Automatic annotation (TrEMBL):
GO MF assignments: aminoacyl-tRNA ligase activity; ATP binding
Start and end residues of each Anticodon-binding domain: 18-69
Organism: Candidatus Regiella insecticola 5.15
A Pfam family the protein falls into: HGTP_anticodon
Protein name per its UniProtKB record: Histidyl-tRNA synthetase
Keyword field contains Nucleotide-binding: yes
Gene Ontology annotations of biological process type: tRNA aminoacylation for protein translation
Superkingdom field: Bacteria
Aminoacyl-tRNA synthetase recorded as keyword: yes
SUPFAM superfamilies xrefs: Class II aaRS ABD-related (SSF52954)
Stored InterPro entries: Anticodon-bd (IPR004154), Anticodon-bd_dom_sf (IPR036621)
Key words, A-Z: Aminoacyl-tRNA synthetase, ATP-binding, Ligase, Nucleotide-binding, Protein biosynthesis
Length: 77
């Protein structure tokens, strides 16, 4: 999160949307106005990847952690 904030200063990043099922967390994030969700589960952590979910379309993609800032910056412009 800190790396993303440093690379994209205009980014508003919330690191947790409460507990419970992942679908409910996505719903809460969307209600707060989030456009994207980043998922860092145990699988992603072990492979150094991040899953990026577009909350409007439901599309998701998995990216290398090192590439997420550049990719996210492109999506937000």
């Amino acid at each position: 999160a800190e790396d993303l904030r440093n690379k994209i200063p205009s980014l508003k990043l919330m690191t947790h949307h409460g507990g419970g099922k992942i679908a409910r967390q996505f719903s809460r994030a969307e209600q707060c106005g989030a456009r994207f969700a980043l998922v860092l589960g145990s699988n992603e952590l072990s492979t150094r990847k991040v899953t990026l979910k577009n909350l409007a379309t439901g599309e998701q993609e998995t990216l290398q952690q090192a590439d997420i800032a550049v990719h996210l910056a492109k999506l937000l412009t």
